[in-house]
Amino acid sequence: FFFLMIRRPPRSTLFPYTTLFRSGTARDLDIASSEVPAWELAGGINRYLAEANAPATDATAASRCLPQNLRTTALKRLNMALRWLVRNDGIVDLGVWDCITPAQLYIPLDVHVGETSRELGLLDRKAADRRAVIELTEKLRRFNPEDPTLYDFALFGIGRSEEHTSELQSQPRISYAV
Hints:
- It contains eight helices and no strands.
- It is mainly α.
- Helix 5 packs across helix 7.
């Protein structure tokens, strides 16, 4: 959806985004066997873009679409896209990819999810980076190993609601570590 609404980029960089919604893309990149599918997918797309644009650009401009430093980035948008593509709730999540399972997904970490998770004692790390995504998702897997991203909308909603945020801040911190 947001991938298709971008201005047409130069050369063949649009191809990976228009085909992202086909599960064949994930199969070709073998993200199903990866412990971190979003980062594997981003790396694969970055490699494809670098190869497709190599004659026309230098190595530093090979991909402007996804982060290059995959060791630290939280990949919020890509984790969100995978959630939509893999989960099937019949409302928002489409469930059109069957090559990976909801159990393999990672929480899309933004400011609201991060703040709420810290208030609830689910996240200790201050930075919203890859390590924080892994830490939070591992804690959520203890509650629901088959679908740790199930809690994404609730954590986001609580963080967006000003009245709930002020209620959370007035409560003592509770650790939900299992």
